[in-house]
Structure formats: structure tokens, C-alpha cells
Design a protein that fits this description.
Strand order of the largest sheet: 3-2-1-10-5
Largest sheet: 5 strands, mixed
Distance between the termini: 65 Å
Number of helices: 11
Order of helices and strands: HHEEEEEEEHEEHEHHEEEEHHHHH
Amino acid sequence: MATLRSLLLLALLACGLAACTTGERDTRGMQPIPAKLVAQMREKGMKPSDPIMIRIYKQESELEVWKRDRSGSYALLKTYPICRWSGKLGPKKQEGDRQAPEGFYAITMSLLNPQSQFYLSFNLGFPNKLEEALGYEGAALMVHGACSSSGCYALTDAGVAEIYAVARDALIGGQTSFQVQSLPFRMTPKNLAMHRDDPNMTFWLNLKQGTDQFDITRQPPKVEACNRRYVFGAQPIDPSAVFDPLGPCPAYQVDPSVAAKVALKTARDDAQIASIATAAPPISLAYSDGGMNEAFREILKNAGPEKLSRMTSAGFPISRPSAALADPYQPLGIDQVQTATVAGQQ
């Protein structure tokens, strides 16, 4: 294992040194994890080499980094505001649709890009096995720096530098790949109730099966695909059985204790969804193009795109600033959106 880590570190160093954008050595990809974040890890019982998992939420324009602690469970390390994402809520299906992907992705060392034109980045690996089987098209869908998106999730340069370093050190530490759960919103009963008429709801409820398993176990769920959907934590009865994304699911089981807890959570959530649905109409808001975290929108609104660009992206232009200001879910939280929607119908 030590030899493997050394080889990975040397490969990353060589890649970083080869990334010449100014004619000088470019070592962006080798920046250490900031000392403050390392201290936060230590307080939470984590080491830089411990495995990670990432969650992305479009509606909230936030990215969470989760990390395994000394107990063996994953705990939230830090939440980062997303400066820009494009498209709307829902999965990416076509090249050029500006959609940022939604789904479950596995990020290996080969998907890290220390030479990104957007400071640093990692590729989500879209299309994954299920998306490819469904005929979804697109390439180079990234999490990167700058505040510009055409199907990607853009953070600040400083934000992506931290995330990149944490991901790199986890992979060097022995994690084969880390899971990214890219979601339309936090899978709460309130959000699901307010979006209940969206045509993507069946797909989102499938994603929720995976997020529920993680919430119960605090372990990234094993992901397979069959019958045109994801299955999570599935252990085939026949060890030689193969999961075909478009074929019928083979006979499988999920750990009974996990399945029981997930079923209980689902029942509770469904009851809350039904209760909320009887009290408030679903929301239906028009999208211009993607969104931006409220903190960045405030700067954009008051100081303009050039100032925001200098603060977040070393001068790289903000993509479609007028569309970012039209994000219907920011700065309104879902509670305020619900109130505004009800008021507008009176």
C-alpha cells in the first residue's frame, strides 16, 4: 500500500509540474489541505488520508464534503457554497442542454484534473453506466473553480482548491474512488412535497432510496443499476448474477436491518409529504438558467459581475449573470417560496 501511495503521489506531482499555463511550473494540484481544515478534521476524529464522499444540491447551491471518522462512520466535514450551476432541476440527458447532472458517480484518481482551465477540477464521469445505457449524452461535466457553468458545478477557486486537495489526499491514502451524490435538492419531505408535480419525481424518489441508505448507515451505498433505475446496497442471491441497467433486476437482497430502517424512514417521510401536500400547493417556478448561492448573488446584485469575478475566479467572467440573479430558489428558502406561492394564488 505504501508503494502504491508513493506512485500515486509521484504521478500527481508529475502531472502538476507539467501543467504549464504561464510558462512556469504549475503546482496548483499539489497545494496542501489548509491547516485550518486539517485542524477541523482532527477535532472531528478524521485524518487527511481518510475516505470521503460528496453531496451536491442544486436548489440550495451547496456542496458537502463528508469524511470517515475514527468510528468508521462518515460525518460532515464542511459545506461549500456553489457559485454557479446551469440548467434546471432534473437529470442531464442531451449534449448541449446546459444541464448539470444528477445521479450517483464514482470519482477515481484519473478523473482529477490539475491542469483545468477553471483552476482545478474533477470530472463526474458522466454518463455513468445507467445514463450511458439510457442513451444520455454529454462529456466533461465537472466540479471546478471559476464562477462559470455550462453543465458543471462551479465553486470559487479557493473552494475547489480545498475540495481538490481533500479528494486527492483521500485517494492517495488508499480510497479507490469516492462517491458523489448529485441531487436536485436536499431530500426532505418539505422539498419533495413542494416539487411533487415535477415530471422528474419518480427519478428523484429513486435517488432518495440511495440517500436514505446513507442517512441510515453513514456509509456510501453500493450502487448498481437494473430495470432502468438505480438499486442500492443490493446483494444478488446468485453471486454470478449481473446487473444490466436495461434488463430486469436479478434476485437480490439488502441487509435486512438496513432495509427495515430505510422502510421506516420512508414511511415517516411519506406521511409528512402527504401532510404538507394537503396544506400547500406545489411550486412551479420558471427557470432562466441554473442558480447561484445566495452569498454570491448578494455580491453580484450589489457590486456587479466584474467584482464577483475578481473575488471568486481571478477575473474569469461570470456566466450569464442576469440568469443567476433570476434563480427562483435564491434568496428565498423553500419556506418563503411556499409563502410567496400561496400568497400569489389568493
